[in-house]
Specification:
The complex is a heterotrimer.
Chain A (H helix, E strand, L loop, with lengths): L2 H44 L3 H5 L15 H8 L6 H32 L5 H12 L4 H13 L9 H9 L6 H12 L3 H9 L4 H12 L1 H17 L2 H6 L13 H7 L9 H21 L1 H13 L2
Chain B lengths: L6 H29 L2 E2 L10 E2 L3 H8 L1 H33 L5 H9 L6 H11 L6 H8 L14 H29 L3 H9 L4 H29 L3 H7 L16 H9 L6 H30 L3
Antiparallel strand pairs in B: 1-2
Chain C lengths: L5 E10 L7 E11 L4 E5 L6 H9 L6 E6 L2 E2 L10 E4 L11 H11 L4 H14 L15 H13 L5 E5 L7 H18 L2 E6 L2 H7 L2 E6 L2 E6 L1 H6 L4 H6 L6 E8 L2 E4 L2 E5 L5 E7 L4 E3 L5 E11 L2 E7 L7 E7 L8 E7 L4 E5 L7
Parallel strand pairs in C: 3-8, 3-9, 6-7, 7-8
Antiparallel strand pairs in C: 1-2, 1-4, 4-5, 9-10, 11-12, 11-14, 12-13, 14-20, 15-19, 16-17, 16-19, 17-18
Helix pairs in contact in C: 2-3, 2-4, 3-4
The chains are: A mainly alpha, B mainly alpha, C alpha+beta.
Chain lengths: ~300, ~300, ~350
């Protein structure tokens, strides 16, 4: 290798590196735009007048003075609209109920699987894991019959009935039990032995030692479960549906959103998008506040598979 | 002493979850297989008129709606999953090889995971609008005339294309973040070793990254296939309850799960058993695909 | 195989981490490594020896300074084009490939014809003695076998330089002895310029043609192992080489005599000053008369050596060691007379630690 060759090689390497970086950042930026466009278009459309929505070609941005913030007011309060605040309220209640239930049942059973010995433990655990492979629609059919027979879904359904029907079937989750058990398993046995030697009762050990150590996982479970309720559509639609002559106002946000302003030939897109953004915003806020917990939880839930 | 069996105590801890699981998971699985053999079952009062071995399954297999649902579901499964797995793998690899702005990009790419499918589906429907949608505007830059993607009277192929874009968009976030954390858990030394061994970037990707990531690729592929088999909410988000472009008409974009809910919503005798039949067909299809995937993984995946 | 000399010129590496102070890992290193020799880079952890190795490999870029392979500067050449083989501390064998695939990987990258690649892989596998394990996966091999696969993979493309990062640190004591001889043999047979990094002075001294002792990123001394041992430049080198370590005493030079307390250790032509006196354990000898009298606390006899653990007269709480012939019987808790062999005593400046 003579000096000229060395020089050429150096330059080639440097050029290659720059080309690579330019390529990487270009692709990633393009992809980021692809990811962000639906959000942008949603917000943009929610601030347009009906005329601007229908204008061809569509405006790609708006001046501040053009923005119709009143769309949001109208989406929430207009006479014709669905009772949006009511949906949000329902959703928060259902999310709180099902999340509280899920966390309690999950913590207790994950503790039993991680820490206690009992007959049929392995067998039972295997059964749970196998159940995770079965599509949820298999359960939904019978669950629908069950909530009907429990009297929660009747033409004269009360608010309480609706809340029960929407939350109780979701008060436990095999996946979260499995997820939390993995975290509990990482707590060294010695801590348990030490606590036992000191005469600590199992429940106190769970409460004072395991739960604090597993706090990040429990927080993750809480967030993911609450987000699940916020995004739940199918089941609430089924058990509070107008198809059976009941009223809309027991439904959750996702249902309200889908049914709002969507008259077949006259959809009010500006209000639709305002409502869509109001449904999107709370989860985005939660996400940015608890980004670390959510992203770590999700990536870990993938890894262990 | 410390590790003795705590039979009763353990079951007390398990009890709350167990009761719920028995009522809302285990029993329903068994019951689905009972329902499918019942004739004229009415969920309102729980009565039925008789038994049939294959009647419900046959009824479902003979309906045009089932085959529409089957076609749509299979297209979603076999088109959207490979596309999104491959795209997310590349994005994750690219993301993993930059330093500056990595966190920002990662956060942006994760956003689709924390959104409401209905809300975003509706936004996609606006983007794909024939007259004032962004997508046709962009196509217009390449002198392509406006196409009716999701409006009333849109063809199946176009509606499906738009739906596919949305489903791929929706599914990338999870895959990217899982792949990325998988990539980050690969020992850097292998990449140093590969540089010393003069491997090109392409060969590093094919010979080092992909094999070392293969357990995760297998996992993502299996779960994505299962997820795609169950696709329904995205269709509702984009096309509304009637599962049809433009919101009117009925069920052109129906999926198997859509069929289950469609039947479940009906009150005529036997409708519930038809839902059970559709769900059981779905179950066996996912089972078959999962077993096939596992068989392939055993041969090809490095653990 | 072409052998080349390696020259490092003013090599400096500064690590700058976000929000932290910069750390100078390697500072102004000037070393010439002769062609075809086996060189040990030696020093305690954090001394910059591995950083130096990785700069030679090209995996790290020096902050300033230059690296020459033969007459060519390679400072900005990426590792894949440098023609080097590197054995990683943890071997970094690709876990999903068989031994054969691991060894052939570099050849496939260089687009060797299949037949030739296979033959070469077999040749080098045989050279390192794992030719019969070609179809195993790394996980099915012992640590020593993995080590050999890593060496074969590094050698198979017949590089101009072989670099080894702590090659023996992951092996148990018995394998370590065996493997270090193996490395020496392979280096002899191939004649390749080889640099290896270690924190174990015994390891470096036993197989290197030359050693380079480093501390805090700065080269302390370079030379043949025995010469460095016999003539350390400074107190650090003296302390780092040798096991059991050298004994150090606070002493002084006055009127041409080296005194530790009241004991006369030897003579010196240096000016009168306070000094640190270093004496290797084997630097003491027992004498019938003359020398100085010390109190022996314990006696350890291991094989051919007897080690006396002696109370330090300057500080009752400390002891020092003297190694004498095992033939001589010494009782614990007794007095003996010792003198110091003149060539085993070193005087260091109290402040700088440099040899006086």
């Amino acid at each position: 290798m003579n000096e000229a060759a060395t020089y050429d090689l150096e330059r080639k390497t440097r050029v290659q590196k720059i080309v690579r970086m330019v390529f990487l950042y270009t692709m990633l930026t393009l992809f980021a735009i692809f990811v962000l466009i639906p959000f942008y278009w949603m917000i943009l459309s929610s601030l347009k007048t009906p005329e601007q929505i229908e204008s061809v070609p569509p405006a790609l941005w708006l001046r501040f003075s053009e923005m119709q913030f009143s769309n949001y007011y109208e989406a929430v309060f207009s006479v014709d609209s669905q009772p949006f605040l009511r949906y949000m309220y329902n959703t928060v209640i259902v999310a709180a109920l099902s999340t509280a239930g899920t966390v309690i049942t999950t913590v207790l059973s994950a503790f039993a699987f991680a820490r206690l010995n009992f007959r049929f433990k392995e067998l039972f655990f295997l059964l749970l894991i196998m159940t995770m492979m079965i599509p949820g629609e298999m359960f939904v059919i019978t669950n629908f019959i069950t909530v009907n027979q429990l009297g929660w879904v009747r033409p004269d359904q009360t608010y309480w009935d609706a809340l029960m029907a929407m939350s109780i079937p979701f008060m436990t989750s095999i996946f979260y039990i499995f997820f939390l058990r993995q975290t509990f398993k990482t707590i060294p046995d010695e801590l348990y032995y030490a606590a036992k030697v000191d005469g600590t009762k199992d429940f106190k050990y769970l409460w004072k030692v395991m739960i604090p150590i597993a706090r990040p996982t429990i927080i993750t479970i809480t967030i993911l479960n609450a987000m699940g309720t916020w995004n739940a559509y199918i089941w609430p639609q089924l058990v509070t549906s107008t198809r059976h002559g009941r009223l809309y106002h027991y439904q959750l946000v996702s249902n309200g959103l889908r049914n709002a302003f969507s008259a077949e030939f006259q959809p009010q897109i500006h209000l639709q998008m305002a409502a869509a953004f109001m449904v999107t915003l709370p989860i985005l806020i939660v996400f940015f506040l608890l980004k670390k917990h959510i992203m770590r939880g999700v990536s870990r839930s993938g890894i262990k598979g | 002493m410390l590790e003795q069996k705590h039979n009763i105590k353990a079951w007390i801890y398990l009890l709350p979850a167990l009761v719920l699981l028995v009522v809302f998971t285990f029993y329903p699985i068994v019951n689905a297989f009972i329902l499918v053999f019942m004739e004229g079952y009415r969920y309102i009062d729980g009565t039925w008129t008789g038994w049939t071995l294959t009647g419900n399954i046959r009824y479902v297999l003979n309906s045009q709606l089932f085959w529409d649902a089957m076609r749509n579901t299979l297209v979603i499964v076999f088109v959207s999953v490979p596309i999104s797995v491959i795209i997310s793998l590349f994005i994750a690899v690219w993301l993993n090889s930059i330093k500056r702005l990595q966190g920002t990009f990662q956060t942006i790419f994760f956003l689709p995971y924390v959104t409401n499918s209905i809300a975003i589906g509706m936004a996609f429907a606006v983007i794909f609008n024939r007259d004032f949608g962004l997508f046709n505007l962009i196509l217009g830059l390449f002198s392509i005339d406006p196409i009716n993607w999701v409006g009333t009277g849109a063809s199946w192929g176009r509606a499906m294309t738009a739906l596919m874009v949305f489903i791929v968009w929706n599914g990338l976030a999870f895959k990217i973040i899982v792949f990325l954390s998988g990539l980050q858990s690969i020992d850097k030394q292998y990449y140093d070793a590969a540089r010393i061994d003069s491997a090109s970037k392409r060969r590093v990707f094919l010979k080092i990254t992909v094999p070392l990531l293969s357990p995760m690729i297998a996992f993502i592929t299996i779960t994505s296939f299962i997820g795609a088999f169950k696709e329904y909410t995205a269709v509702v988000g984009m096309f509304g309850e009637n599962l049809n472009p433009g919101g009117g008409g009925r069920n052109m974009m129906i999926t198997i799960v859509g069929l289950v809910y469609e039947s479940l919503g009906q009150v005529y005798p036997g409708a519930t058993s038809e839902a059970a039949a559709a769900a059981i067909i779905l179950f066996f299809m996912t089972l078959l695909l999962t077993l096939f995937n596992m068989y392939i993984s055993k041969k090809r995946v490095h653990y | 195989m072409e052998t080349i000399q390696i020259r490092l010129e003013n090599l400096t590496k500064i690590f700058q981490q976000k929000g932290k102070e910069e750390t100078v890992a390697v500072k102004d290193l000037d070393i010439t490594i002769p062609a075809g020799k086996l060189i040990g880079l030696l020093g305690p952890s954090g001394c910059g020896k591995s950083t130096t190795l990785y700069m030679i490999s090209g995996l790290l870029r020096p902050t300033t300074g230059k690296i020459y392979f033969g007459d060519n500067e390679v400072t900005n050449i990426p590792p894949e084009n440098r023609g080097i083989g590197l054995v990683f501390q943890n071997y970094a064998l690709y876990p999903h490939m068989t031994v054969r695939q691991n060894i052939m990987f570099p050849l496939e990258n260089l687009k060797f014809p299949k037949e030739e690649a296979l033959n070469r892989a077999q040749k080098y596998a045989d050279l390192v003695g794992i030719g019969h394990l070609m179809d195993r996966k790394p996980k099915q091999l012992s640590g020593g076998q993995q080590q050999r696969v890593a060496i074969a993979r590094a050698l198979v493309k017949e590089p101009r330089v072989l670099l080894l990062d702590e090659p023996l640190s992951n092996l148990d004591a018995r394998l370590r002895l065996q493997t270090r001889e193996e490395i020496k043999r392979i280096q002899r047979e191939t004649g390749i310029t080889t640099i290896f990094v270690t924190h174990d002075q015994e390891e470096a001294m036993s197989i290197s043609d030359e050693i380079v002792v480093m501390k805090d990123g700065v080269q302390q001394q370079k030379g043949e192992p025995q010469k460095v041992y016999d003539k350390p430049n400074n107190m650090f080198v003296a302390k780092f080489l040798g096991n059991p370590p050298i004994n150090l005493f606070e002493g002084r030079v006055s009127d041409g005599e080296v005194l530790v307390g009241e004991m006369k250790f030897g003579t010196s032509k240096g000016k009168a000053q306070e000094v640190m006196v270093g004496v290797r354990p084997e630097g003491f000898k027992r004498v019938k008369q003359g020398g100085f009298e010390v109190h022996v606390e314990f006696v350890e006899t291991i094989g051919r050596d007897t080690t006396l653990i002696i109370r330090n007269p300057l500080d009752e709480t400390k002891t020092f060691r003297a190694i004498i012939d095992a033939d001589e019987r010494v009782e614990a808790d007794s007095k003996v007379r010792l003198s110091v062999k003149p060539n085993k005593m070193f005087l260091f400046d109290k402040e700088s630690g440099e040899l006086v």
